[in-house]
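Before a computer can learn anything about folding, someone has to put a protein's shape into writing. The outcome of that step, for a single protein, is printed below:
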Amino acid sequence: MRIGALTLTLIALGCAAMLPVSARAEGLRCGSKLVQSGDTRASVRSKCGAPVDVTHKTIFHRPSFVLRGRLFFGDEVALDAESWTYNFGPNKFMRRVRFVDGIVEDVDTLDYGYHE
């Protein structure tokens, strides 16, 4: 029995659909307010209050751009990166908000929280 290219493609797509998906959050809900990518530190603090933990580090980024079909790289720049962790108690997941240059870049879901 011979299997056609279309059948193999459909089987591959079906298998790919069953693979686990990374648990990335689109945002963080604090009461009725939503924190999402692009928000500032001040905005997050006003919506969610003070985090239980803050870590700081410097990351290096080399910007790139395309001009007339060619890829160019700019000079490497140092950016301030912070991670704020929020603990919502033992019955809810903790959340980590990552800022790059003062702007929310990502929100991660962590393990269950704890009693403070």
